[in-house]
Amino acid sequence: MELVNDHDPKPLHYQFQAELPGKFSWEYLESGPDVWRVRIQRLATGHGNGQCCGSCGGI
Fold first, then answer.
1. Predicted pLDDT at 44
2. Where are the domains of the chain?
3. φ/ψ (deg, to 5) at 7
């Protein structure tokens, strides 16, 4: 996903870090002063034993 915003979305980055630690990447593509573009990607997660517990929605 690419986020385009008129200000630095750093608070959103902090929220992602708090709620989804280690499950996403965050890459600034453009850093103001008028436009900020950020690429946010979900990172692949393994299930260790090959069985899904359902907590991630099967993703």
1. 81
2. 2-42
3. -150, 165
